[in-house]
Design brief:
Length: 443
């Protein structure tokens, strides 16, 4: 399905552009002579763009449609990749990273929203997981490209030029993404909301066949008729899913997944690993991320979203506590690698997948884009704080204290998800909306 491919490629660009900084940060920090807060800002500035991109993406997608919204994301990715290559100083680098961040943030709202509105109920979890799979492949591509480029020259070359090529390589998937959007179908729910019923019915027929299309069209129309489409609904009728989405999005980041990936080679260097080996170990971690995301793709519509979050976050809690312990006793770099890998595995089959699935499901059609913007803004705000504070935390608390703080965040996630998050597996988007208003949503 072209729509699924577009969503997956949007995730790939998200993953690449967000994590490519991991290989570049050590070199550009030397080039620009950055202190700890400066390193945090260089690593985290794109996430400020993410926050802005998230904040406006819902309104843009609701107004222009999902296809045009994704096309704008592709433009941001391409401009950022090209601009950073020619950045003469830190200020220019930050400007282009902010533009790339706009694309990352907007894509993190529009791509899962788009595929959730197109996919049949029985496979919706797996289809939205394809977006997360795209992110994981993008992360793997970023760390692999970083490793290849890092090995093309010595430290002096990498400080002056190599890190620029790491960013520039992202322009090629950005252009492919733009081309893939052209033949993709528009969301039938957006078309119906805009009064284009015949177009919506045509898309639904292509996706599900004529009989199912007619039934689903009526369900969408009935759901739209019961929604006002005002943002104020999110703070009244749908306040509960809004707050749960914000909470879940923030919790996805509180265990440190973004700063850990953003500083992955630096984490391994701190554990005593040589520079070249640190890049190779980053590739190994990303392969684990890919394998367990594929596992989640098979599992998400079988085990359910909440079950995956609880199991994955429990593994993260244990893994981070042990990473902190091995730093504390100055243990082997191999032990740090093993437990970082198990932490990433827990994220991959748990919150990394289920968070995106749930926040793409729980909001009503007329305000889904704006609601996802609010929730995903919370995700990137916590991610930005993680990147900004990570070098400062390491300096103040040490690597052991930093990872123990992240472990505490994972424990908090387990408690809150167990108590507050309902299961959405096997329910249509319209059924989920109805359950919020009738208060019959079983956990």
């Amino acid at each position: 399905m072209i729509a699924a491919s577009v969503s997956t490629l949007g995730g790939l660009l998200f993953g690449y552009d967000n994590i490519v900084i991991s290989g570049a940060i050590g070199y550009l920090s030397q080039l620009f002579h950055l202190d700890a807060p400066g390193v945090g800002w260089a690593a985290g500035c794109a996430l400020v763009g993410c926050i802005v991109g998230c904040a406006v993406a819902g309104a843009v997608a609701d107004y222009l449609g999902k296809k045009k919204g994704l096309a704008l994301c592709a433009v941001c990715f391409a401009l950022s990749s090209a601009g950073i290559f020619f950045a003469a100083d830190l200020h220019q680098f930050v400007i282009w990273r902010l533009i790339g961040g706009l694309g990352i943030g907007a894509a993190s709202v529009i791509s899962p929203n788009y595929i959730a509105e197109i996919a049949p109920t029985r496979v919706r979890g797996r289809c939205v997981t394809l977006y997360q799979l795209g992110i994981v492949v993008g992360i793997l591509a970023a760390v692999f490209v970083n490793m290849l480029i890092q090995r093309m020259g010595n430290d002096a070359w990498n400080i002056a030029t190599g890190w620029r090529w790491m960013f520039f390589a992202g322009i090629f998937p950005a252009l492919l993404f733009g081309l893939m959007i052209l033949p993709a179908v528009e969301s039938p729910r957006w078309l119906m909301k805009m009064g284009r019923r015949e177009n919506a019915l045509q898309v639904l027929t292509e996706l599900n066949g004529p009989e199912s299309a007619a039934i689903e069209a009526r369900e969408i129309e009935n759901a739209l008729a019961s929604e006002e489409g005002h943002l104020s609904e999110l703070f009244t009728t749908f306040r509960r899913p809004l707050l749960l989405g914000i909470m879940l999005a923030g919790l996805q980041q509180i265990s440190g997944i973004t700063p850990i990936f953003s500083f992955l080679p630096e984490i391994f260097r701190t554990a005593g690993t040589a520079s070249g080996d640190a890049f190779f170990q980053s590739v190994l971690v990303s392969l684990v991320n890919l394998f367990f995301t594929l596992f989640a793709l098979w599992l998400v519509d079988r085990a359910g979203r909440k079950t995956l979050i609880l199991a994955g976050t429990a593994l993260q809690f244990i893994s981070l506590a042990l990473v902190g312990w091995f730093y504390h006793i100055h243990g082997s770099g191999l032990a740090v690698l093993i437990f970082v890998m198990s932490f990433v595995a827990g994220h991959a089959f748990g919150n990394g997948v289920a968070c995106w699935v749930i926040i793409s499901e729980i909001y009503p059609t007329k305000v889904r884009g704006r609601a996802m913007s609010i929730a995903t803004t919370a995700l990137w705000l916590v991610g930005y704080l993680g990147n900004q504070l990570f070098p400062i935390m390491q300096k103040a608390l040490g690597s052991d204290g930093t990872f123990w703080c992240f472990s505490a965040g994972a424990l908090l996630t387990i408690i809150l998800v167990a108590l507050l998050i309902p299961e959405t597996k096997g329910r249509s988007l319209e059924e989920i909306t109805k359950f919020w208003t009738t208060d019959h949503f079983a956990s």
